[in-house]
Design brief:
The complex is a heterodimer of chains A (about 325) and B (about 500). With about 325 residues, chain A is an all-alpha fold. Helices cover about 75% and strands about 0% of the residues of chain A. Chain A is built from 13 helices and four strands. In chain A, the strands form two sheets. Chain A has a two-stranded antiparallel ribbon with strand order 1-4. In chain A, strands 2-3 form a two-stranded antiparallel ribbon. Chain A is globular and about 70 Å long. Chain B has 17 helices and 22 strands. A six-stranded mixed beta sheet of chain B has the order 6-7-8-3-9-10, with helices on both faces. In chain B, strands 16-19-20-13-21-22 form a six-stranded mixed beta sheet, with helices on both faces. Chain B is globular, with a radius of gyration of 24 Å. The chains are: A mainly alpha (about 325), B alpha/beta (about 500). Chains A and B meet through α8 and α9 of A and α10, α11 and β18 of B.
Chain lengths: ~325, ~500
Amino acid sequence: MNTKERVKTFLQENLVLMTIVILVVATALIEPKFLTVANLGNLMNQFGPLSFVALGMTITIIGGYIDLSVAGIVSLSAVFTISMVDVLGQTGALLAGLAAGALMGLLNALVVVSCGALTQAKALFMTYALSAVYSAAALLYTDGATQHMSHLTSPTTLFKGIGSGKAGFIPVSFLLFFVIMFVLHLFLTRTQTGREVQLTGANITATDMVGVPVKKRVALVYVLSGVLSAFGAIVLFSRITTASPLLGANYETNAILAVVVGGTSLAGGRGSVIRTMLGVMLVTLLSNCLNLLGISTYIQSVCKGIILIIAIWIDRRRTK
Amino acid sequence: MTSKSSSDLILSMKHINKAFPGVKALDDVSLEVRRGVVHGIVGENGAGKSTLMKILSGVYTKDSGTIEFDGQTVEATSPMESLRMGLSIIYQEFSLVNSMTVGENIFLGRFREAGGMKGTHQKAKALLDKIGSSIPTHRLVSELSTSEKQMVEIAKALSFQSKLIIMDEPSSSLTEEELAGLGVIINQLREQGISTIYISHKLDEIFEYCDYVTVMRDGHVIDTRPVAELNRKDMVGMMVGRTIENEYPERPHCVGTPLMQVKNLNTRKLHDISFTLNRGEILGLVGLVGAGRTEIVRAIYGADKVKQKEIRIDGKDVKIVSPQDGKKCGMAFVPEDRKQQGLVLPFSVESNISMASLSNLKNGVFLSKGKERKMAENKISELLIKTSSPQTAVVGLSGGNQQKCILGRWLETGPKILILDEPTRGIDVGAKYEIYLLMKKTVEAGSSIILISSELPEVLNMSNRVLTVADGRITGEFDPEKTSAQEIMNRAIG
């Protein structure tokens, strides 16, 4: 490999990291407030709910599928968890919420597998339909009313800790994210099951033929996605102390944005949760920078869309 | 070759070089093709045939060298430009749109120049008539047989006024009868003054159809000669760089006691399949494409749903409903479609080899990278897999080496029953011989093999026993050492 090719490969592999560095330097030059401890804590805080949903999405996409139902899962598990606090106590409610997420993930997997959806495109439509079901269930469950943590009689200290607690200047939610990401990274890269998930994502037929239980692996990725989405929902409502039955709207788009921008291939089999962390970082940094620079949210949405398109374009070039 | 005036030549490629990271794919390659001849190119996989053709058609760019086509120097080109110049390539995997009609496919993207839909179908019919085909132009491509699709590809090539048509392994999915049809078409092209480059592993076809042949090996052109001057042994010798006395090793003779009994296997396509496989035996399944050979082994392995089946291995009834069960019973399956069902193409040689034995690589809960590397390196040296490193993506390997990766993957599991479905399809003579030797070694170590192959000589020379399959039934059982090929084929036709 000559120097030119090496530089090209390095740039391709580390494009996100470079962009992040450029963004940080540029914003710090223009806006000195950016590099203060307060803003750094604020940045890590913004990692919050999306980062968990994006982790689940990463694993689903590496497994060769996609999960558009995360929006519905976030909404339903949020309102469900709040409603359970006075019934089961806060720890019980937390576990029940996560279990609900897992159950919805399992349902996703059952539908996808039993319909014989071997492609991402088919799974895309099915999970989109299921998202509508979960969202409607959230509306039915609450009669359309927003749930308030302040209306609860039981203590909610656990949720407050998860949502806005801090260890020093580092938010608890960020620490939790970091630990979960690390565990998932080990799972994907170092365990047999993790390897099998990757193989399934790259070629489900060939992986099936060597005797890997591919259906179980597909179920696993959807359950993980469900649990992580539910956890994201818990972080979210704990922070804003209310949960509307439409809480999760647009989470699927932002999660896919973070995953793809991070460089996990939509083709399946290739990617990592660490890349997704960089993706989430880029997305949050960008909106943080744009906010500091006083740019309107409408323009910010346009930017996000453009970035997603560029990221998919780069992904296509890479897989070719 | 003797020098001749350039107007005799349709194509002249000189001193072509092409390197990929780590590999010199073409090293100072020169090729001249005369007008109106059929020019064969043979060589083992990885010899550089495909790379050369891809440079010609504009898929790859050359590092250096000159190309002259029809008297004009060709610089950087694209696949569409080369079509317009009069150079078409028909790949092994066809480029037709299944959901469109024959006529539409022939003039795809050029309906206006063809004079609308009416003109398209009229002109398409004229082209098909020219090559003696009577496929209705309004039929959907998805309804066509492989050979009919090939006809459509050829008609499409002619529609561009092609002066040179390159056929890459055209016969790999044709039946004997369809192959004869292809021969007629090639002769017609020759009569019309159109040159053909015919790439094939099958030497019989080279001798039958080609006027000249160029032998390539390891990115070099070894020689270009009129076919009439060569015999089979010379050609094989040039291809592999050594003389191969025999195409097949001596048949192994180590058949033992019964190992597996299959009884009353019934599916929608198969009827009352019952047979026994013995220890140390190579059992060949012979039949036409679509007769049900692949379905039989897939059903046994648990890859397909069945209505009824009874399988006994080592005298014990076993229940096999998924490939997982099949593997647990000591089976290994090398599928017919290497790229779709066998390999995980973007992954490394290493992980393709290890994927059936991941549970042996554990160090506590984690996979040991060291053990995995060692497993891969052992298999690479044992099976002589040519790869620059265990980390190389398997997609970049030649067909023979890819197949060896799949074999290595399964041999690592120590299978009792090795199922080989078309194990040598699209593989060159040298690699084939190595695979035959591996089969021999496997049965001599006590395992059994079920062999499916469309190449009759292969089954007849390697098997201890042959079952003929026709229309989803087993129609006969033969000892290939005592029965003639003719007799077996007659029974296979049903």
